[in-house]
Amino acid sequence: METLEAYLDRKYQEITLLNACLRRPQNPPRPRSVAEIIRTKFQLTAALRAEHELLEWNSTETAWSTTARPASGPFVFSYDYQRADLGVNGPSFYELGAGCTSEIHYTGSGMAAISAVILSCAQVLADGEILTLPGTYAETLELIGQFTPSLQLVFPQLPLATTRTGLPRILLLDSSLPAETFGAILRSTGTGLDLLVFDTTCFAVRSGRIRRVLVWAQHYQVPVVMVRSHNKLDSLGAEYGRLGSVVFVRWNDVDEAKRSMVERLTTAVCNAIRLLGGAALPAHFPPYVGREAYWMLTKKRVAAILRNGRHTARMVARALPLQSAQLHFTHGLYITLRAKKSLDEERARQTAEALSRDLSLEGYAIRHAGSFGFDFATAEWVRDATTTQYSVRVAVPDLPTRLWSDLSAAIVRWWGET
Questions:
Q1: What pLDDT is attached to residue 309?
Q2: Best label site of 112, 260, 393, 404, fewest CB within 10 Å?
Q3: Strand pairing report for 324-326 and 334-337
Q4: Which residues touch 129 (CB under 8 Å, ≥6 apart)?
């Protein structure tokens, strides 16, 4: 259990880290409330972005200045017109094990990353199957359905079968899956898979679950492409800027056919990022990444969110058993709730907004927003792409134990009365 004083001390360390990245550091006091923490962190990240623009004034889209050396903290950039050939030299977000090499390409968002990969798979593999599990990010499925008709969406039974249809097979593994489904994948065989596309957005970049997936893929010699949105768990809860990435993981002893496929896919992804205008903005790279304090504070933040998430799942399971849509996502970052009467999109949106508004007026740290990983809770409508049912997602914040317990109880009370 984290006390309020210990929490405020930890948040002051986050504020101090952000402040230390400024060329002209401010003198923020130790915060005295959650509201003050949220306001100070967003103000400091805004100041960091503004300072970057002022100091890097000659690093323009046209790359007109030969003296420009654009950078953001430990990240140093090189590029020509419109960042189509953006080169990034800086610390890695991931920790990869032995037996592989990796290559990273940054994009302007997580959707830009997954879009470049899926479109490139359709180009490189032509006809193929994408094995998809219930709980996969809805926009990813929408992207596949609307823009890559040659890639057939298949919802397989678990454990995965080893029989092949003769078509290339891609497994789309999303970190937003229910825990039971995610575990069943790792208990399956990877034999017969040609590629694993792994969306890691909901896992901390140094999560043991990412390592487990890579060990599983290496065992079956399945090439891996990891895609990610970095403005959620990787920005200390301050949503620094839209940033995504594509990481190709190549096993050292993979067969030549798979090695050739990955090389062709890498080239196609780079072209897709360039031609679709999906390159990252240098100003959106958090300058505090790579510092030891950053990794320590990020680890503590995510651990606190996971503890709070487990507490909430238990509370909701006891109090609202019939209205619990999904309480056990493998990431542990949020839960989903169903209403007593079936919801459509508009009613689900209105319910999420009303929940946030009412509890916010009572003084609780909750907002109506479609993201997660903050120092405040968020509520938003969601649609299950496989069942087409609508529910409300409540994302768990990094709050001290007692404050979050009180807010969880308020959510349960409000939902039970709705």
A1: 97
A2: 260
A3: antiparallel
A4: 151, 152, 154, 165, 167, 168, 169, 170
Distances (CA, A) of 151 to 23, 121, 132, 329: 49, 8, 12, 27
The H or E element spanning position 390 is strand 390-395
Pairwise CA distance, residues 283 & 61, whole Å: 12
Number of neighbouring beta carbons within 10 Å of residue 387 = 10
Whether 416 and 340 have beta carbons less than 8 Å apart is answered as no
Chain position carrying tokens 């809860």: 237
Place of tokens 């030969």: 66
CA atoms within 13 A on the CB side of 326: 26
Helix 256-275 to helix 110-125 angle, to the nearest 10 degrees?
130
Domains of the chain: 4-55 (no CATH), 71-284 (3.40.640.10), 295-417 (3.90.1150)
pTM to 2 decimal places: 0.95
Which token pair is 270? 């780079």
245 and 216 Cβ atoms separated by less than 8 Å: no
Q: Are 342 and 401 in contact (CB under 8 A)?
A: no
Instruction: State the DSSP code for 251.
Output: E
Question: Residue 168: is the preceding peptide bond cis (ω within 30°)?
Answer: no
- In the chain, the amino acid numbered 60 is T
Residue keyed to tokens 């933040």 = 301
C-alpha to C-alpha distances, 236 to 121, 192, 233, 239, nearest whole angstrom: 33, 39, 7, 8
Closest by CA position to 377, among listed 345, 348, 412, 347: 412
Cβ atoms of residues 123 and 147 within 8 Å: no
User: In this structure, are residues 123 and 152 in contact, taking their beta carbons and an 8 Å threshold?
Assistant: no
CA 176 → CA 31, 139, 162, 198, 306, distances in Å?
A: 33, 12, 24, 11, 14
Per-state percent for the chain, helix, strand, coil, to nearest 5: 40, 20, 40
Q: How confident is the model at residue 114 (pLDDT cuts 50, 70, 90)?
A: very high
The span from the CA of 6 to the CA of 96, in Å, is: 32
| Average pLDDT, rounded, for the chain | 94
Q: Are 150 and 126 in contact (CB under 8 A)?
A: yes
